[in-house]
Structures are given as structure tokens and as C-alpha cells.
Design a protein that fits this description.
The chain is α/β, with parallel strands linked by helices and 284 residues long. It folds into two domains: 127 residues, Aldehyde Oxidoreductase, domain 3 (Alpha-Beta Complex), CATH 3.90.1170.20; 148 residues, TIM Barrel. The protein contains eleven helices and twelve strands. A six-stranded parallel β-sheet has the order 6-11-10-9-8-7. α3 packs antiparallel against α4, α6 crosses α7 and α8 runs parallel beside α9. The two termini are 41 Å apart.
């Protein structure tokens, strides 16, 4: 199943929750100035350069408020957009356009900001084998949208949720009584098709994880020199992933080390929004 299909199957219920958060009973402002169904149209304008992501989510907000709403655009998710571009024209009941404006923009601005920032970081890894991953550090009830935006921006999704993969972290290791105990427990419990990833903080933990047969080693918050030693020790016996304090400055150095993956929570928790607005409303 592709990412857009997954999002489409789940987005209506999530969008409706967002609309109910913004309209608990009615949009009293809109209903006070527009008393009956009135057809109108409005433009979606781009106010800064970036990567657009979430156009179908944006569209769906208005369709849920007005099934006859129509959006025309020549852009698609993943396109580079420029300041002053008219990205779309939305036509429908003016009450739906006004009531849905903020929710629709919240989705589109957030998703486009993530795609834009992901593309910026992914460029540091071009020409290397290292893939850029997201994390579970997502906004509650926004994960399907935010992880979709990472893919649009050229990143790769890590596990989607806790049911999606085995990732043994420091507190799991403490609870199990050690690295080997945690890995052995996971191997006994989980289906054989599941890979086992374990987070290590130093080279001793790394060696223990390798000896216990971990499939993926996450090098957590290591400096560049220690990370380089870790990759040499792994020597192809497991896949390698680094995480923690991933900045633009460090990415180029990390890629040179030859890790397989670099995971970056900032893709979803710290990306600035892309500035977009709805303007030039006209009554038809």
C-alpha cells in the first residue's frame, strides 16, 4: 500500500476531528455575515519558496464541509513552489470556504513545511548510501500527514508506530537487565520476520548487541569519531543507524562515515511551516 493510499483511508476521520475542534457548534462569525448558501471562490497563494505537500488534504477539508466544493490546481505534491504563485482556486459555498480556511491551511502549511525541510536535509546525503529517516516525534493525530510529508520531501519513513517494528531503547534495556537479555527476549517473542533494532550509547554496548545478533544498531548521540569506530566494528554484520543531535552541519560528516540510516526527529517536531494564505475571495 502506498503512502497516499494509507493517508486517504484515514484522513476523513482525522480532518473531521480537527474541524470539530474548530467548530464546536457553529462558525458564529461566518453565519452572522453570510445567512444562506452563497457561491464564491478564493485563491490559495504561496508567500515563500518551498515544497508543497498536502494538497489533497487541503481539498478534502472543504469537500467535507461542502460536497460540491471544487478545487482547481496545476500543482501536485512534491512540486517546488515560489513566492506569489497562485497554487489553486477553490470554488464552493462561501460559508464552507470561510469555516474551513484555518483548518485547511494548518494542514497544508504544516505538511509543506516538513516536506521543505526534509528536502533541505536530504540534499546533504545525495551521492551517499545514507538514507534520511523520520521518527515517532510527531504531533498527536497528525502522524499519517507528517510522515507522508517526509516522503514527499525525499525522506524515508522509520517505523510508523509501536506495532510496526522492534526498537529496543535504553529503558527497555534497563527493564530487561541488559542488551543481550533484551535482544533474546525480542527474538523469542516477536515473529521471525521482524528485524530487531537496538539503541547503543557506547562501543561496549555495540559489541554486546552484535554478539547477541541484532539486525540494526542505532548509534545514539555519539560523536563523529566514536561513530566512525562503531561503523568499523559493525563491518557489515548489521545495518547501522545514527540518531541524536542531527544538525545540518553534522549531516555531511555523518554521511562520509558510511552509516546506512540517519534518523532526525526535527523533520517533524521542528520544521517551520511554509507560509501560505487564502486571499481574493469573490462572490459569484
Amino acid at each position: 500500500m502506498n503512502d497516499f493510499t494509507t493517508m486517504k483511508l484515514n484522513m476523513d476521520q482525522l480532518i473531521l476531528q480537527a474541524l470539530r475542534e474548530d467548530i464546536t457548534s457553529e462558525d458564529i462569525t461566518t453565519n452572522s455575515v453570510i445567512r444562506e448558501a452563497t457561491k464564491g471562490q478564493v485563491q490559495l497563494l504561496c508567500k515563500e519558496d518551498g515544497v508543497i505537500a498536502g494538497l489533497e488534504v487541503f481539498r478534502r477539508v472543504f469537500e467535507l464541509l461542502d460536497p460540491e466544493c471544487d478545487m482547481k490546481t496545476t500543482f501536485k505534491d512534491g512540486d517546488m513552489v515560489k513566492k506569489n504563485d497562485v497554487l489553486a482556486v477553490i470554488t464552493g459555498d462561501v460559508r464552507a470556504l470561510l469555516s474551513g480556511e484555518r483548518t485547511a491551511l494548518n494542514y497544508l502549511q504544516r505538511m509543506s513545511g516538513i516536506a521543505t525541510y526534509t528536502q533541505k536535509l536530504a540534499e546533504f546525503l545525495i551521492g551517499t548510501k545514507t538514507k534520511l529517516l523520520d521518527t515517532r516525534k510527531t504531533t498527536p493525530n497528525m502522524r499519517i500527514f507528517e510522515k507522508y510529508a517526509v516522503k514527499v520531501g525525499g525522506g524515508t519513513n522509520h517505523r510508523f508506530n509501536l506495532s510496526d517494528g522492534i526498537l529496543i531503547k535504553d529503558n527497555h534495556i534497563s527493564a530487561a537487565g541488559g542488551v543481550a537479555q533484551a535482544i533474546n527476549g525480542a527474538r523469542e517473542y516477536a515473529p521471525f520476520v521482524r528485524k530487531i533494532e537496538v539503541e547503543v550509547e557506547n562501543l561496549d554496548m555495540l559489541k554486546e548487541a552484535l554478539d547477541a545478533g541484532a539486525d540494526i544498531i542505532m548509534l545514539d548521540n555519539m560523536d563523529i569519531d566514536t561513530m566512525r569506530q562503531a561503523v568499523e566494528i559493525i563491518d557489515g554484520r548489521a545495518q547501522s543507524e545514527c540518531s541524536g543531535n542531527i544538525t545540518e552541519k553534522r549531516l555531511a560528516d555523518i554521511a562520509k562515515i558510511g552509516v546506512d540510516f540517519v534518523s532526525c526527529g526535527a523533520l517533524t517536531h521542528s520544521s517551520p511551516i511554509l507560509d501560505l494564505s487564502m486571499k481574493n475571495l469573490q462572490i459569484l
